[in-house]
């Protein structure tokens, strides 16, 4: 039996498609699966790339999607027009803080520097005790394998505690990742 009920998941992912179309397919499947489980998707509010695929997957399955987008990114990321809620904020710091408030857990799909920064910040906040919300990487096609190796290296080199290392999860499928985050 899980200890945590997940009502909302913050999904961090790329605003680009990536080179392998399976990343887009996986992102759409994440949105669809979360919607089918009755879990609200909280994400960056964009309609492009993996972000748009997550939102569209959830919306197609009748799910609730909440976007949080800085005003400056409405043009470049083309704010998604069909969301249950779209919060427009002024800064990335405000975006991340609002997403943290709205979500019960955090998941990173493939993405770039922004995706990495967002999930690492939430992991850091959990380690510092600012919140008790678990974080995980959905390792689509091995995308996050180097990150998993880096976490092991930080642990081996004494820059990360075993407790800190246990606060981040890596799974190649969504269902096991959600199960692990529920039990965290």
Strands, helices and their partners?
Blueprint: E1 8-12, H1 21-36, E2 40-43, H2 49-60, E3 65-70, E4 85-89, H3 92-102, E5 105-108, H4 113-128, E6 135-138, H5 145-156, H6 162-166, E7 168-171, H7 174-183
Parallel strand pairs: 1-2, 1-5, 2-3, 3-4, 5-6, 6-7
Helix pairs in contact: 1-2
Structure overview:
The chain is of the alpha/beta class and 184 residues long. The chain has one domain (8-183): 3-Layer(aba) Sandwich (Rossmann fold), CATH 3.40.50.450. Helices cover 45% and strands 17% of the residues. Strands 4-3-2-1-5-6-7 form a seven-stranded parallel sheet, sandwiched between helices. Helix 1 (21-36) runs parallel beside helix 2 (49-60). The chain is globular, with a radius of gyration of 15 Å. The termini are close together. The relative contact order is 0.17.
- Main beta sheet: 7 strands, parallel
Q: Would you state the CATH class?
A: Alpha Beta
* DSSP helix fraction: 40-55%
Structural class comes to alpha/beta
Radius of gyration in whole Å, from Cα? Answer: 15 Å
In whole angstroms, how far apart are the ends? Answer: 12 Å
CATH fold description? Rossmann fold
Total of DSSP H or I helical runs spanning 4+ residues: 7
Rounded mean pLDDT score: 94
* CATH architecture verdict: 3-Layer(aba) Sandwich
What is the number of independent domains? 1
- Reading side by side through the largest sheet, how are the strands ordered? 4-3-2-1-5-6-7
Strand content: 15-25%
Number of strands: 7
Q: Uncertain segments of ≥5 residues (pLDDT<50)?
A: none
- List the secondary-structure elements in sequence, H or E: EHEHEEHEHEHHEH
